[in-house]
């Protein structure tokens, strides 16, 4: 599979840019009085979408794309160390990677169902 040719990489790349843009803003409380751990849920959702894009890009569920997503998540957490009001968190990274894996699996199940049905 040609990883650069074609445009299968575009959804994942566009979402990655969106993730970096959002994580470049100083900390902001989205909803006053959010429940404890809500940020982990948001990380999970955000990176689940990235996982879907990575699976689409991979064209067949190559685990290397999960590793690449995990590396991107680590770089994003590192980047947040230098954004006022934000910090790097191993728990955020774990939520990110969990989201990537779940998104990757969800896309695989949907694609398999589409082929079977």
Structural notes for this entry:
With 117 residues, this protein is mostly helical. The protein has a domain of 74 residues. The chain has 4 helices and no strands. Helix 2 packs across helix 4. The longest helix is centred in the C-terminal third of the chain and has 27 residues.
Notable features of this structure?
mainly alpha; 0% strand
Secondary-structure element pattern, one letter each: HHHH
Shape: globular
Distance between the termini: 25 Å
DSSP helical segment count: 4
Average the pLDDT over all residues and give the rounded result: 88
Radius of gyration: 15 Å
What is the share of helical residues?
Answer: 55-70%
- Low-confidence parts, pLDDT < 50 over ≥5 residues? none
Strand content: under 5%
State the oligomer. Answer: single chain
SS-based structural class?
mainly alpha
Biggest β-sheet: count, sense, barrel?
none
Number of strands: 0
In short:
This protein has 117 residues and is mainly α. Helices cover 68% and strands 0% of the residues.
Topology summary:
Blueprint: H1 10-23, H2 38-58, H3 63-80, H4 90-116
Helix pairs in contact: 1-2, 1-3, 2-3, 2-4, 3-4
């Amino acid at each position: 599979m040609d990883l650069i040719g074609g445009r299968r990489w575009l959804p994942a790349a566009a979402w990655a840019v969106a993730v970096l843009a959002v994580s470049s803003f100083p900390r902001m409380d989205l909803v006053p009085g959010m429940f404890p751990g809500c940020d982990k849920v948001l990380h999970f959702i955000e990176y689940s979408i990235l996982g879907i894009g990575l699976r689409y890009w991979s064209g067949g569920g190559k685990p290397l794309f999960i590793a690449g997503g995990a590396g991107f998540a680590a770089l994003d957490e590192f980047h947040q160390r230098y954004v006022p009001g934000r910090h790097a968190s191993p728990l955020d990274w774990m939520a990110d990677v969990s989201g990537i894996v779940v998104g990757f699996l969800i896309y695989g199940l949907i694609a398999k169902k589409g082929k079977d049905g």
